[in-house]
Amino acid sequence: MIASDANLNVSADVCLASVQQAAISSSEQLGESVAAIVRKRVPNSLPLSILIRERNLFIQTNKWKMFDLGGKGFLTFDEYLAMEWAGYRVIANPDSRVVTKIEFLTRFLGDPKEEFSGWSTPDQRENFETIYNSIDIIQKGFITIDDLRPRAMAAFNRMDKNHDGRLSRDELQ
Q: How far is Cα 118 from Cα 6, in angstroms, rounded to an integer?
């Protein structure tokens, strides 16, 4: 791990303050804001496999601080969608509002240049290509938050065990 847990917590508090001050009006805006902060927190100078792991770890470790706007103790669908989108956007081109197929696959398979990454396992690559294709239904070569929305809604509904339209900490593990 790159930073101590104390540094991660301080950084998550900074993320939360930034997000709360930003007058977030959409899931995409929240996801993009958090992704930008995480990109700054975990520098591009790291090897790609470590970069991916550390950025995803940062989001998972601090998801409640960054996405539970107002500290309610649960996530709404819009907050959950923002969290999912931020996870994809942390390794994507920051100048774009989309995630390309290669960026999507790299998030899950690791660095294509590494001999033992998921890229070298045909079954694993095929599984993630199938998932990607289920999101990019018209095969345009990139996905947007709107493309991700139906899959995120299905996942949200599966986790929402008591069907109250929000995810508690127990439901989102």
A: 32
Question: Contact, 40 vs 90, CB < 8 A?
Answer: no
Instruction: Classify residue 138 as exposed, middle or buried by CB count within 10 Å of its CB (0-12, 13-18, 19+).
Output: exposed
User: pLDDT-based confidence at 42, cuts 50/70/90?
Assistant: confident
Conformational region of residue 33, where left means phi above 0, alpha means psi within -120 to 50, and beta covers everything else = alpha
Sequence-separated (6 or more) residues with CB below 8 Å from residue 12? 58, 61, 62, 65, 66
Q: Is 126 helix (H, G, I), strand (E, B) or coil?
A: helix
Query: What pLDDT, in 10s, does the model give residues 134-150?
Result: 999 999 999 999 999 99
Task: Say if CB 42 and CB 55 are below 8 A apart.
Answer: yes
User: Which pTM was predicted?
Assistant: 0.82
Q: How many CA atoms lie within 13 A of 68 on its CB side?
A: 17
